[in-house]
Structure formats: structure tokens, C-alpha cells
Write a structure and sequence with these properties.
Mean pLDDT: 82
Structural class: alpha/beta
Radius of gyration: 36 Å
Distance between the termini: 33 Å
Number of helices: 22
Number of strands: 10
Bound molecules: adenosine-5'-diphosphate
Shape: elongated
Helix content: 55-70%
Strand order of the largest sheet: 6-7-8-3-9-10
Length: 619
């Protein structure tokens, strides 16, 4: 949205400049067109053929009407006229009478197949671009999703390809069909009466004045309409994704107001556009009627036959539509240019973390992770972790403690290679993380975080997300190990209950157990754990602890600790302060030797156990 609003107030370029501007993005569309090129070219050719029939229609009309003396002759009069004037034979009369419907049939067929083929190609191209965009967005590193609002991303992937399609189907069709139609009509008009042709071609543009004037207004409102559509997507997406916060703070009315504003804004803009569009046709008709009056006077003055007059009028009528379309084409290009530019900009953005061309896949993994003098900053001005050197030995349990913002989550993100260190390196079993593929690295890491994301799918598939090729039996076995089997069976359809549907009641603690089941199923040698800060009832808590107990067995575990039990069982505790690793040791060692740890311990994990209120002061 931001990019469109930035360009909103700029002066829009004229016709030729727009066409020139469109060439670049249009050329980038070509690769998408390649698979459908035959259909596309055939569609364009049919459009050209349709254009060529415009003048033909007028000619045929003139020939046919020439048979009608005075324009009011009866059938016998025509036959008499034909025989007396050595005119066309009767079978040619039938042919000529059939000519108008025949030309119309051929013209309609051209138009139909031209429309069908080009929209088919356009729609297929849209779907290819959408797929490409989605694949590209999914390839991006995590920082990309922090920078871009998801509503905006949804709008980009869904709406912008539609704009590209417009450029492809409408513009390419019009650029071929309409000039041919104009040439054909003007050619016939000159052939019929060159003086009339010159006069009408001078007067004709007056008809276009309302189209051009109102077209400009449509263009302006069109851009604003797209902006507010994108704004609406952002509000919708945030309202649904952030529903817990909205409900918890009772901000439904506030969200409703936000939505109402963008909704009304869009309606206002659409109504403005409609008012303008609807005004065009009546105005054009009035101007055309005036033109018809002048034409009739000219016909009387010059003594032109009725047949030629009708043919000339037909030429003018068939001229109107192509000229109107061509005069609007730069508006269509302008509208689609915005979308296309955004698409190609998006496709040019490379992920900040990408696999090296010679990156190898991690196949065997012991789970030893080493930080060698690692520094990393999200923003230039502040380092999130500084000069971190530490070895996480395979199969051991590590707890990260420290105040909020100390850099604990950053360590987990760096291990997952969501980001690359600015300085230093991280190795897995001695191999630099930058030398291995991201996908294979993450296959060897299980993650259980505070908030479990469940997809709108069955519970079975939600657990299976941990390992897509797991059998149903393996999924149930993992659920049993995570103490999740019982509550799953209590759901309306057991494992087949769809999350979020009626009959699905899953508490926060149960969601955590589903996440543990997912991680158990994944069975990765490294486990990253971000413990929940919110207090659960003691039964849920016990279940989670018991499930985690099973999960951590035999793995390298790095846990952001919020529970006393976690720090007590950790082989080593890493104390973080302002991005630095300040102390390392077991709970007992640190308690007796360290002041920082003791202070932290007293605040976060004091003797009474986990106290959420005090925890909240720190986090
Ligand atoms: P912790 O997990 O210990 O609370 P984090 O690792 O989340 O700490 O944060 C370390 C520092 O990095 C903090 O100063 C925080 O503000 C900053 N930070 C964390 N995530 C981002 C982000 N996505 N963009 C910018 N700064 C961030």
C-alpha cells in the first residue's frame, strides 16, 4: 500500500510516455506468456480479423442497400428493378441479403474466440504469477515478514496479478484489434466519400472529449480505490489474526471503526468512479446525435444516396468503439503498471539469508553447536548479541536466562539460521551453517515455542506437520507420548476434528502438548524450546512438563527458561545481559558465585516458584 500511496500525488504521464513506460514491465511478462504463446497469438490474430471486418460491414451494407431503390421498395419492385436495370441476378441478390448476417456471424465468432482465448491466457498467466509470487514470498527470510504487513502481502499476491492480467488481455488485444478496426473503417469511409471522411474525422474527436475528460477522473479515483482496498486487507487480516488481543482489550468497536472508515472510503471512491463512468455514455450519445443532425444536412446538401449514407454512418459507429478504447488504453496501462511494477519489484527482492550455490544438505547430525565470536544486529545502531562464543555439546540441556531483550530469542533464531551473523560464525558438528542448506538444517531442529500455531486442518494433520510422511499410527503414538491422546479423543471427531471448527475445544496447555507431539514426531536431534511465560493451571503444567520430559530425552536442548524446573535440570545455564553472555554454570554454581544470576533468580524464579506477576515486570 505504501508504494501506491507514495506515487499517488505524482503527475500522471501522457499517452506515449505511458506506452513507453509499459514496455519494460510488459517485456518482463513475456516469460509468463511463453507457455501459452500459440493461444495468445491466435487470440490476437482473431482480434485483428475482427477489427478488419468493421469496414467490411459498412461496405456490405452499402451494396445491399443499393438494391433498395429509394430505400422503400417492395420485393416485386426490387425484382423488377433488378431485371430492368440489368442489375445482379436473383441468386446474387440472395447472396447479398445473406451477406449482412454472414458478416455479423463471422465477426461475432472472431470476437468470441478472441475474447475467450485472450482471457484464458490472461487467467492462466495470473495463476502462474501468483504461484511464482507465493513461492518467492515463502523463500524470503524472516526479516522480510517483519518489514511487510501480512495484509499487504496478501493484497500483493492476490490483487496485483489481476492488474498484470488486465495489461496482458485488454491492452494487448486493444493494441492489435483497435488500430486495425480504425484503419478499416477510415479506409472504407474515404472510399465512400473522401470529403465526408475528412469532415467527420475532424468533428469526431469532439465525441471523445467527454471520454477523455471523465477518463482522467476515473484514473485518479482508480488509484485511490486500490490504495483503500489494500488498506482494507490489512485491517481485515490484522483483525482476524490479532483477535485475541482485540478481545482481551475489548477493542472490537475500535477495529469496527477502522474497518468502517476504509470500507466507506472505498465505497465513496467506487461511487465516484461509477458516477463518472455512467456519465460518459449519455454525453457521447448527445454529441453523436448532434453529429447525426449535421451529417443528415450534409447528405441532403450533397445529394448522397441512402445506401452510401447508411454505410457512412455505419463506419462512424464502428469507429467510435475502437477510438474510445484506444484513447482509454493508457489509463488501463497506468492502472496495471502499478500492479506490475510492484510484482516485479517484489520478485527482484532477494532473501537476506539464502543458500550458497554449493551448499550441502545436512544428512547426519550429532547436534553439537558452536558459536565463534558471533555478533548480530537487527538494526545498525544496536547489536542484539555481541561477541558470543560458546559450545553447546551434543545431547546436553542448556537453559538461557536473562531479562527481556537480553538476546535469548536471537540465539535461537541464529541457530535456525533465520539470520546470518554479522560477525563470527556458528557451526553445527564443525560445519559453518552458511555452508549447509537451510531446509536440511531445519529438518534437524525441533522447535516448541510459547504460542503454537495450529492450521485450519484436522488435529491429525496438525501434528503430522512435524513430519509430513508420518503414518496415522506414528502420529497417534507421538500424541500419546505428549499426553495429548486423551483430550484429542474427547473432541467431536477425535483426530479428524478440524481446528477452529465447531466441536473443537483446545486449551492453551493442550495446544502446547500438540506442539510437543509435533516435535516428537519430527524427532530432530536438536530441540529449541521457548517456554510459555503465561501461567497454566497446575494440571496442564504437570502434563506439559511430563511431555517435555519425554521430548528432551537424548537431544541437544536449548531452552529459554521461564520455569524453575527448567533451570534446575539444565546441565548448564547461560546468563545473558544486553546481548552478551555474562555467566555460564550450573544452578548451584551460579547461585553461589554470581551476583547477576542471583538477582535474576530472585526476580524470575524466586523461592515461591514461578510468579507470573513478577515475571511480567521483567519481560
Ligand atoms: P530476549 O529474547 O532475550 O527477550 P531478543 O533476542 O528478542 O531478546 O532481543 C534482543 C534485542 O534485539 C532487543 O534489543 C530487541 O529489541 C531486538 N530485537 C529483537 N527482535 C527484533 C526485530 N525483529 N527487529 C528489530 N529488533 C529486534
Amino acid at each position: 500500500m505504501s508504494s501506491t500511496s507514495k506515487t499517488k500525488n505524482k503527475k500522471r504521464p501522457g499517452f506515449l510516455k505511458t506506452i513507453k513506460q509499459g514496455v519494460g514491465p510488459m517485456r518482463k511478462l513475456l516469460p509468463y506468456l511463453r507457455p501459452y504463446r500459440r493461444r495468445f497469438i491466435l487470440g490476437l490474430a482473431l482480434g485483428g480479423a475482427f477489427g478488419a471486418t468493421s469496414g467490411l460491414l459498412a461496405l456490405v451494407l452499402q451494396q445491399v442497400l443499393a438494391l433498395v431503390p429509394g430505400g422503400t421498395a417492395s420485393r416485386t419492385a426490387i425484382l423488377k428493378h433488378v431485371s430492368e436495370t440489368n442489375g445482379p441476378r436473383i441468386d446474387s441478390v440472395i447472396w447479398l441479403c445473406a451477406a449482412i448476417p454472414l458478416v455479423m456471424i463471422v465477426r461475432s465468432l472472431f470476437s468470441y474466440f478472441n475474447g475467450v482465448l485472450l482471457s484464458q491466457v490472461g487467467l492462466k498467466v495470473i495463476s502462474d504469477i501468483r504461484e511464482h509470487l507465493f513461492r518467492h514470498v515463502m523463500r524470503q527470510s524472516l526479516d522480510y515478514f517483519h518489514k511487510n504487513k501480512s495484509g499487504d502481502l496478501i493484497s500483493r499476491v492476490y490483487n496485483d496479478p489481476r492488474m498484470a492480467q488486465m495489461a496482458l488481455s485488454t491492452v494487448s488485444a486493444d493494441l492489435v484489434t483497435q488500430p486495425i478496426a480504425i484503419l478499416s473503417s477510415v479506409g472504407v469511409l474515404i472510399y465512400l466519400d473522401w470529403k465526408f471522411a475528412i469532415i467527420s474525422l475532424c468533428v469526431f474527436p469532439i465525441c471523445l472529449l467527454p471520454v477523455i475528460y471523465f477518463g482522467k477522473r476515473v484514473k485518479k479515483s482508480g488509484g485511490n480505490e486500490e490504495d483503500s482496498a489494500s488498506g482494507m486487507m490489512v485491517i481485515l487480516q490484522e483483525s482476524f489474526a490479532g483477535i485475541r488481543v482485540i478481545k482481551a482489550l475489548a477493542r472490537e468497536v475500535y477495529q469496527r471503526k477502522l474497518f468502517r472508515e476504509t470500507n466507506l472510503q472505498q465505497v465513496r471512491q467506487s461511487i465516484g468512479i461509477q458516477k463518472t463512468i455512467q456519465a460518459v455514455s449519455p454525453l457521447v450519445e448527445v454529441v453523436a446525435a448532434l453529429g447525426a443532425g449535421v451529417t443528415i444536412f450534409y447528405v441532403w446538401f450533397e445529394g448522397i444516396s441512402a445506401a452510401t449514407f447508411m454505410a457512412m454512418l455505419t463506419c462512424l459507429f464502428t469507429l467510435y468503439d475502437p477510438v474510445k478504447k484506444l484513447s482509454m488504453i493508457h489509463m488501463v496501462i497506468q492502472r496495471s503498471l502499478g500492479g506490475m511494477t510492484r510484482i516485479f519489484q517484489m520478485l527482484e527482492e532477494e532473501p537476506t539469508v539464502s543458500d550458497k550455490p554449493d551448499a550441502v544438505a545436512v544428512t547426519e547430525c550429532r547436534g553439537a553447536i558452536r558459536f565463534e565470536n558471533v555478533s548480530f544486529a537487527y538494526r545498525k545502531d544496536k547489536k542484539a548479541v555481541k561477541n558470543l562464543s560458546f559450545e553447546f555439546e551434543a545431547g546436553k540441556y542448556y537453559a538461557l536466562v536473562g531479562a527481556s531483550g537480553a538476546g535469548k530469542s536471537t540465539i535461537l533464531s541464529l541457530i535456525l539460521r533465520f539470520y546470518d551473523p554479522a560477525k563470527g560464525r556458528i557451526t553445527l558438528d564443525g560445519r559453518d551453517l552458511r555452508d549447509v542448506t537451510q531446509a536440511s538444517l531445519r529438518e534437524h531442529i525441533g522447535v516448541v515455542t510459547q504460542d503454537t500455531f495450529l492450521f485450519h486442518d484436522t488435529i491429525l494433520n496438525n501434528i503430522r506437520y512435524g513430519r509430513l510422511d508420518a503414518t496415522d499410527e506414528e502420529v497417534t503414538a507421538a500424541a500419546k507420548l505428549a499426553y495429548a491422546n486423551n483430550f484429542i479423543l474427547e473432541q467431536a471427531k477425535g483426530y479428524d476434528t478440524v481446528v477452529g471448527d465447531k466441536g473443537c475445544n483446545i486449551s492453551g496447555g493442550q495446544q502446547q502438548r500438540l506442539a510437543i507431539a509435533r516435535a516428537l514426531l519430527k524427532n530432530a536431534p536438536i530441540l529449541l524450546l521457548d517456554e510459555a511465560t503465561s501461567a497454566l493451571d497446575s494440571e496442564s503444567e504437570q502434563m506439559i512438563q511430563a511431555a517435555l520430559e519425554r521430548l528432551v530425552q537424548g537431544r541437544t536442548v536449548i531452552a529459554i527458561a521461564h520455569r524453575l524446573s527448567t533451570i534446575l535440570k539444565a546441565d548448564k545455564i547461560l546468563v545473558m545481559e544486553n546481548g552478551e553472555l555474562v555467566e555460564v554454570g550450573s544452578h548451584q554454581e551460579l547461585l553461589s558465585e554470581s551476583t547477576v544470576y542471583r538477582r535474576l533468580y530472585n526476580i524470575q524464579f524466586n523461592q515461591a516458584g514461578e510468579q507470573p506477576a513478577e515475571l511480567a515486570m521483567v519481560d
